[in-house]
């Protein structure tokens, strides 16, 4: 079983004002936090980065950019790119802007994965959290079609592909662990 981690860092960070992957929390960069969380459960990790920040990552990391035909077209473009570039059985997706998710959370998510569905993700009492999720292989063609048809919305694709939404409490009692940082003051 080959488990690939997909670290999403291909966004514009417009609301944040500077690249979120390189923002800091407790002396660590956001992308380092996400990397450590993925490292606990993945055989390999691929960072799908915005071209402008690709050179800033350490040379030993595997950093790619979106497929040219879908570049910058949102998280689905990043996920498809990683799935095409790295063949695996399972893909654990984590965005660079969820710095409170750590190894304990990725381990629980993997252990609670619903094998009967293509995607397993979580929902807190207030919202669904589509980008902290596990995707089975075999979705590449459906993803390509979705993007070619102009589909950009992650949750729309997830529902079409088949998704189980786990209660976030099963992974961490505190729902604020699953918040994503969009602005510098949050
Ligand atoms: N590979 C890739 N990742 C993306 C793309 N757009 C967003 N992401 C990532 O998906 C996650 C959620 O992104 P958002 O916060 O919605 O968007 P953002 O572009 O980073 O920020 P804003 O410009 O403020 O909307 C982050 O980890 C982004 O880096 C994209 O086009 N390609």
From TrEMBL:
Pfam families: NTP_transf_3. Residues 5-155 form the MobA-like NTP transferase domain. Transfers a GMP moiety from GTP to Mo-molybdopterin (Mo-MPT) cofactor (Moco or molybdenum cofactor) to form Mo-molybdopterin guanine dinucleotide (Mo-MGD) cofactor. Its cofactor is Mg(2+). Keywords: Cytoplasm, GTP-binding, Magnesium, Metal-binding, Molybdenum cofactor biosynthesis, Nucleotide-binding, Nucleotidyltransferase, Transferase. Mg(2+) binds at residue 97. It catalyses: Mo-molybdopterin + GTP + H(+) = Mo-molybdopterin guanine dinucleotide + diphosphate. It comes from the Bacteria. SUPFAM superfamilies: Nucleotide-diphospho-sugar transferases (SSF53448). InterPro entries: MobA-like_NTP_Trfase (IPR025877), Molybde_CF_guanTrfase (IPR013482), Nucleotide-diphossugar_trans (IPR029044). Its EC number is 2.7.7.77. Belongs to the MobA family. GTP binds at residues 8-10, 20, 66, 97. Its main location: cytoplasm. The N-terminal domain determines nucleotide recognition and specific binding, while the C-terminal domain determines the specific binding to the target protein. One of its GO terms (molecular function) is molybdenum cofactor guanylyltransferase activity. It is found in: Cytoplasm. This is Probable molybdenum cofactor guanylyltransferase.
